[in-house]
Amino acid sequence: MWRQLKIQLKSEDASELEQTLFKSGALSISYLDAEDQPVFQKEPNSTPLWDNAFLLCLFDENAELDSLLADLKGNTRILNNENLAVEVIEDKDWERSWMEDFKPMQFGEKLWILPSWEIPPDPTAANLMLDPGLAFGSGTHTTTSLCLRWLEKSAIDTKEVIDYGCGSGVLAIAAALLGAKKVHAVDNDPQAIAATLDNSYRNNIAEGIITAYLPEALPELSPDILIANILAEPLIDLSLKFAGLVKPGGQIALSGILEEQATSLLSCYKRCFDLDSPIIEKEWVLITGTRKA
Fold first, then answer.
1. pLDDT in tens, 19-46
2. What is the pTM of this model?
3. Residues 6 and 83 in one domain
């Protein structure tokens, strides 16, 4: 048996509170996104956090928490301080419980993502084996799903593709499995580069099909398709770079964009791309288009 305390606060206030919780007997503290907000790592080796986060604090079942609760309920930086309560957590097989949360997911007709311990529902499909890890992108987020479904229905066979902001490599590997002749994965986080190459190896992608680069090391290219699932701000910053990369007649797909941000992105990219009608799902947007001649 364990006792768990769930605290909601701004991430900028988390570090100081974390020390207090450990001093009060917390055995572990985990961070969770409180608002379904993806984060973009602008500086290599940095650890970005969501603006609004939950701290899950685990204590021994015999821990005395009355005094801690009283102090926390008086802390105005805690967003749920009036509703704080301790939850009793039963012992269980955590590894098996964790594995049960990840099931095969289908994107379109011929693309599946599934963890390595599952048997493919359709052995003849493009089956991408991907275990959840530290780098962003397992297919569960709406923006990743939008990009995967777009890739699945695109004429990608024999095409050259850039996955800009590759994270775990899920889009790059999906492109390779769907027939792309060459995929260039780009990320400013060395951990994402390593994850992409490792996941490529685990999916038996032929050597040389997927290459991975830090942005400054990306060679001069002229891809048929550029896909970027990051955030609105860096997408705006990178608009001219992307326009210079994609060949005339080539395609672009952008996500990581909230619905209220779409107008700014459309205005920015319409100078160099003929844009399609945005696809909106659960307040997230996919913007696609064709590079003007």
1. 889 988 999 888 776 655 454 444 444 4
2. 0.71
3. yes
